[in-house]
Write a structure and sequence with these properties.
Blueprint: H1 3-14, E1 17-21, H2 31-41, E2 48-51, H3 56-66, E3 73-76, E4 79-82, H4 84-93, H5 95-106
Parallel strand pairs: 1-2
Antiparallel strand pairs: 1-3, 3-4
Helix pairs in contact: 2-4
Length: 108
């Protein structure tokens, strides 16, 4: 296993909610990342992020590791939730907040 995969695994394991995105939550660099961050932020939970534009090694390796080709990618409790479309669908159904709230139950 290469060092980048280990780094990704460590990030996912050490952050109950993490999004791999283009840009930052305050300054997204693409519309999909902006929409995803807005939905996640609306749930009222803190989350970590990794800017894949500033981390080209992660941008290259994460799609292979996750078997998910695009960004953003939302991970909750070590599980890939999905990209922008799935995040927005869960948000619109009211299920994103429930999914993210699982972190409270598992970490208490």
């Amino acid at each position: 296993m290469n060092d980048i995969i280990k780094k990704i695994q460590n990030q996912i394991q050490n952050n109950p909610i993490i999004i791999y995105m283009k840009g930052s939550p305050d300054a997204p660099s693409c519309g999909f990342s902006a929409q995803a961050v807005h939905a996640i932020s609306s749930c009222g939970k803190k989350f970590a992020y990794i800017d894949v534009l500033k981390n080209p090694d992660i941008r290259l390796e994460l799609p292979k590791y996750a078997n998910w080709p695009t960004f953003p990618q939302l991970w909750v409790n070590g599980e890939l939730i999905g990209g922008c479309n799935i995040i927005l669908e869960l948000f619109q159904k009211g299920e994103l907040k429930k999914t993210i709230s699982i972190c409270d139950k598992l970490n208490s």
